[in-house]
Write a structure and sequence with these properties.
There is one protein chain. This protein has about 725 residues and is mainly α. It has two domains: about 425 residues, no CATH class; about 110 residues, no CATH class. It contains 26 helices and six strands. It has a four-stranded mixed sheet with strand order 3-4-6-5, with no helix packed on it. It has a two-stranded antiparallel sheet with strand order 1-2. A hairpin with a 2-residue loop joins strand 5 and strand 6. The chain is globular. About 40% of the residues are buried. This is 4-amino-4-deoxy-L-arabinose transferase. Keywords: Membrane, Transmembrane, Transmembrane helix. It comes from Micromonospora phaseoli.
């Protein structure tokens, strides 16, 4: 006899009813001995069974009830038909909901009712010749084959949301914001001043022009005529030569410079971010490292020195080399992550960084040499004395060998012109006395430059006691100091790693002081006297770049540990996500370092190019002449690149000094004869700049008997010799 349960126990009701209809009767039970149930009772049991099945289907739809069981195995066709009649709504409902292997992809749902009686899982007719399920037409569609443009679109989409892509675009957007208003009038203004930036805008323009027209004359620039090797009188920014091939004239040179200026900041932030990530820091910790490296307050004083701002290749090359060698500060050496392609890329980026100038590139070269030496000693020591077999890989060794040779070759080729200049102009070489002039005192590490929006006005008194504050205000940021100090106590780095980072900070800050730390006898002077090329570094304070990078890594360790703790707290919450306040708390360090890096850098308008510079042939001399006067003249020459006697650099050649001294009486016979001896054909006197100079009177003096002619072109007086 079928036992009826309540409607809420749908599973038991269906199961008992299924046994009664589908299974064979026991041996001691005869079909004719089964008592006949009253008609009403049979109807009641059938209705209850049907109601239980409907309740179960509704529960399955809502996801709250058990999966209904189907008909049992065996039984004749009649029993199967009776079972189908009793549970038709249930099986139809299960089919409608898509349960089973082909309905929702979850194995086991509805499988008993769809397959155990011989029916196929897709709803086709099974044993007994039953009518096919009418829902079979709604089976799953065949899997579509993606087209080539579909695959390309997915790949592009994955690329656009990749971490490195987002980091690159974020760095670029932040660079535009943090350097604003550099790009407001990029064809007419320059950041900080128009002296050194004019020189560097000319350098990029000249390198591109020379490589396109006559590469053999690259180092013999059109300025400082008739000097040779004049392009090596200062850092060249040669790595930006491809940009110099685009556009002609001063406006193009200014636009190019300002774009590169913004991109240099973006690359610095991105490179430091990538390095911190490779070392094992979290995303927010790496962002702090990137921002502090690119926008430390002391760097605002270097806004007029693009070769100092262009330092992003340093952390980027280190990150690539570490990735290629499978090494991480947090996880150590992992041979399975080695990849020689990243090694090649790292050495090439390092070589490109070196090509931007030795002022920043030379210390980088010695750091790389030190890293290679220490790594080789440790590897051989563990291999020989401790018998530790760590695979290095032949291809990786070849990559390091070839990459290192490329880097060294670029360094040697770039150094040859500078050594030649030193031989031709021995007075250009720096002395310890020159270094002492630019060596900052300890107070410089807590003093911000005037360009700092947050601290500039507050530190005006502290700057006034510094002998040369543009190179002695070396504050990396008080927020960075605090985060780095916190990184000594709580960090993802080990205690030994923290102490090594701290030691690096102290060493680089000591070297940044030049001769101020015990006269540099045990720090800077030995490097100056014994390391090739080190004597060419005029300002030791720029070594603060390395202290800033190491402080940023310490800060990244602290912020990463804080972010991990936030994730742990959020995992303990129900539901497991951090509250908005916890999310905002992880952003506080980043907001603080960004705020300290905001600037109030002036954006002066560059003097426009005189019309005479577009028409007068060279060699020519523009008067008045001086370091600050000549750098804009170099920029004006980017239209025709005619030879000009004028020039500005880190030192003044004696011949140019003689020209300036003799030309004070121009036009007279002595100056005219001297300029003719040098090969000068034209002299341009700028009327709007000669107030208070001897030319204010002599520019209109008679030239009869001198064999020269005078012509007025706008506000410029042209003397043709």
């Amino acid at each position: 006899m079928t036992t009826q349960h309540s409607a809420g126990d749908g599973t038991k009701s269906i199961s008992r009813d299924t046994r009664t209809v589908g299974e064979a009767a026991p041996d001691d039970a005869k079909p004719d001995q089964t008592p006949a149930a009253p008609p009403d009772a049979d109807r009641t049991g059938e209705d209850a069974s049907r109601q239980d099945g409907l309740d179960q289907v509704e529960a399955a739809k809502d996801g709250t009830g058990p999966t209904p069981a189907g008909p049992a195995k065996g039984g004749d066709d009649k029993a199967a038909r009776e079972q189908n009649s009793a549970g038709e709504d249930l099986t139809d409902g299960a089919s409608k909901e898509g349960n089973g292997k082909e309905g929702n992809g979850e194995e086991g749902n509805g499988e008993d009712g769809a397959s155990k009686d011989g029916n196929a899982t897709d709803g086709t007719a099974g044993s007994g010749g039953r009518k096919p399920d009418r829902w079979a037409a709604f089976g799953p569609a065949p899997e579509s084959v993606p087209t080539w443009y579909g695959r390309l679109g997915r790949r592009v989409g994955r690329l656009l949301i990749h971490e490195w892509t987002l980091a690159a675009f974020g760095s670029l957007a932040l660079a535009v914001l943090m350097t604003w208003p550099t790009l407001r009038y990029p064809a007419h203004t320059l950041p900080q001043d128009y002296w050194d930036p004019s020189l560097q805008a000319w350098q990029m323009a000249w390198s591109g022009h020379a490589l396109l027209t006559d590469p053999a004359q690259l180092w013999h620039a059109n300025s400082f005529f008739p000097e040779r090797w004049s392009f090596a009188f200062s850092d060249t920014l040669l790595g930006y030569a491809p940009a110099g091939m685009i556009g002609v004239g001063p406006e193009a040179a200014l636009l190019r410079y300002n774009i590169i200026f913004v991109l240099a900041h973006a690359l610095a932030a991105f490179g430091a971010y990538v390095l911190a990530r490779q070392f094992g820091a979290s995303r927010i910790g790496s962002a702090v490292a990137g921002v502090t490296y690119a926008y430390a307050p002391w760097l605002l004083a270097q806004a007029g020195h693009l070769h100092v701002i262009s330092n992003g290749g340093i952390p980027l090359a280190l990150a690539m080399l570490a990735r290629g060698h499978g090494w991480s500060l947090r996880h150590g050496y992992r041979p399975e992550r080695r990849h020689e392609g990243w090694v090649y890329a790292g050495w090439l980026v390092a070589a490109w960084q070196l090509s931007l100038g030795f002022g920043i590139g030379l210390p980088f070269a010695y750091v790389l040499a030190g890293i290679v030496l220490v790594a080789a000693v440790i590897w051989f020591a563990k291999r020989i004395f401790w018998r530790v077999r760590r695979p290095f890989g032949q291809r990786l060794f070849v990559a390091d060998l070839i990459g290192g040779l490329i880097f060294a070759g670029v360094g040697v080729l770039l150094a040859i012109p500078y050594f030649t200049v030193t031989q031709l102009h021995p007075y250009a070489e720096r002395t310890i006395a020159d270094i002492a002039v630019f060596s900052p005192p300890p107070s410089g590490f807590v003093t911000a430059p005037a360009e700092s929006r947050v601290w500039g006005g507050l530190h005006e008194g502290a700057r006034s006691i510094l002998p040369w504050h543009p190179e002695m205000t070396l504050l990396p940021g008080f927020a960075l100091y605090a985060l780095a100090a916190g990184g000594l106590l709580l960090s993802i780095w080990t205690v030994r790693q923290r102490l090594l980072l701290l030691a690096g900070v102290l060493v680089t800050m000591t070297l940044s002081m030049g001769t101020e730390f015990f006269d540099g006898r045990f720090t800077y002077v030995p490097l100056f006297e014994h390391l090739p090329g080190w004597s060419g570094i005029r300002t030791p304070g720029r070594l603060m770049l390395w202290a800033t990078l190491l402080l940023g890594l310490l800060a990244a360790g602290a912020v990463s540990a804080f972010a991990e703790r936030v994730r742990e707290i959020s995992a303990e919450r129900i539901p497991s996500w951090p509250s908005p306040w916890l999310r905002l708390a992880t952003l506080i360090p980043l907001v603080l370092v960004i705020a300290e890096g905001t600037n109030r850098t002036p954006q002066p308008v560059v003097p426009p190019q005189p019309a005479a510079m577009r028409s007068v042939e060279g060699p020519l001399l523009v008067l008045p002449s001086g370091q600050n006067h000549d750098q804009p003249v170099m920029l004006w020459s980017t239209t025709r690149f005619q030879d000009i006697v004028n020039g500005g650099s880190g030192f003044v050649p004696r011949q140019l000094d003689d020209v300036r001294r003799v030309a004070m009486t121009f036009p007279d016979q002595t100056s005219v004869d001297y300029l003719r001896t040098l090969g000068v054909r034209n002299v341009l006197v700028m009327r709007d700049r000669i107030a208070g100079t001897p030319w204010e009177v002599s520019v209109d003096a008679p030239v009869d008997g001198l064999g020269i002619t005078r012509e007025e072109i706008d506000s410029v007086v042209v003397f043709r010799l």
